[in-house]
Amino acid sequence: MVNINELTNLCDKLGCRITAECSLGEYVTFRFGGVCRALISVNSADSVVEILRYLKENDIRYFILGRGSNVIVSDEGFDGVILLFGSDFAKIEVNGNTIKCDAGALLASACVHAQQSSLTGMENLFGIPGTVGGALYMNAGAYGSEMADIVVSAEYIDENCEKRFISREDMELSYRHSFFSGTPRVITSVTMELSAGNADSIKAAMNDCMAKRSSKQPLEYPSAGSTFKRPEGSYASLLIEQCGLKGLSCGGAEVSEKHSGFVINKGYATCADVLELCGMVQKTVKEKTGFVLELEPIILK
After folding, report:
1. Cβ-count burial of 96 within 10 angstroms (0-12 exposed, 13-18 middle, 19+ buried)?
2. Same domain, yes or no, for 119 and 184?
3. 106 and 194 share a domain?
4. 1 pLDDT exceeds 90?
5. pLDDT tens string 38-56
6. 291: CB partners within 8 A, 6+ apart
């Protein structure tokens, strides 16, 4: 049971903003979802430690949310507390060839800082709509690049609410997976190492990357990005297209006509619509091709 008064007093002490009974639709890129008991916009690693300790001591469910670009929120909402890693926890520091970011910093903002500092290595990640912490959590990537290529270290909070440091070698980075995935470990900062480059060339590469995204992906509609992980030996979008599922819809959810790897919100989709549609796609693809498609976004319920 969430005691809003106690939680509000704690947040006031830490200087963190809190909203009770907060609708989550505006905090996720799919633009739907129910209400959480409270949403706290964290402002530092120390604040996260204090809040996590309180939540664990009081047996309160919690979830770490960044940009919400890889999350599907239940229509019934979340019976717990959301810790929002957003603009209040988004500092970016450039030092030589390294960039250190708070976990709530947008990956796109880190890319811009790199370009302005004539640092190359992040161009292909430009346009991924998430935070740096979220990108490391799932080892996000695009166009042949991924976080594993540039990250050198991170700071995180472990299962016992203790601050820890980890180097890249111990992060267990693989396709859409890291040492943090599916664990209570909370990333608080990420340090990346890039190479010296030409600012104009880097900007041109970033613009090219964004143009490719815009031409191939349904960015005009709310979604959670790529809906299915790449199965070994094929591509989700190819399998879905081969099965004739492009344009398949359920309520307000639709398999994008522009890119079949995306399930989009046509403007009135619910979580139930999306999950039912995803289930239909998974069933058909398995029956027709033998491939098992696994959802990429996290389902919050």
Report:
1. exposed
2. yes
3. yes
4. no
5. 999 999 999 999 999 999 9
6. 231, 233, 234, 239, 285
Q: What is the mean pLDDT of residues 85-99?
A: 97
Q: Is residue 139 part of a domain?
A: yes
Check whether 25 has a pLDDT greater than 90: yes
User: Quick check: is 71 in a domain?
Assistant: yes
Position 64: which residue type? I
Question: Which tokens in the block code for residue 39?
Answer: 């949403």
Q: pLDDT at position 218, please?
A: 96
Here the CATH number for the domain that contains residue 35 is: 3.30.43.10
For the stretch 212-234, pLDDT in tens is 999 999 999 999 999 999 999 99
Active site residues: 176, 226, 296
Check whether 291 has a pLDDT greater than 90: yes
Pair 52, 140 in one domain:
no
Q: Are 62 and 83 in contact (CB under 8 A)?
A: yes
Split into its structural domains, the chain has a count of 3
For 274, the enclosing helix (H) or strand (E) is helix 271-289
Tell me the whole-structure pTM to 2 decimals. 0.94
Do 123 and 196 belong to one domain?
yes
Instruction: Specify the amino acid at residue 300.
Output: L
Host domain of residue 269: 236-300
Long-range contacts of 16-22 (CB under 8 A, 24+ apart): 16/40, 16/41, 16/42, 16/43, 16/47, 16/51, 16/88, 17/41, 17/88, 22/82
pLDDT tens track for 225-265:
999 999 999 999 999 999 999 999 999 999 999 999 999 99
Looking at the structure, tell me whether residues 81 and 96 fall in a common domain: no
H helices present in 117-227, as ranges: 132-137, 199-216
Q: Do residues 255 and 286 both lie within one domain?
A: yes
Q: What is the 3-state secondary structure of 200-257?
A: HHHHHHHHHHHHHHHHHCCCCCCECCCCECCCCCCCHHHHHHHCCCCCCEECCEEECC
Asked if 161 and 131 sit in the same domain, the reply is yes
Indicate if 153 and 40 belong to the same structural domain: no
- Give the bridge partners for 223, in sequence order: 264
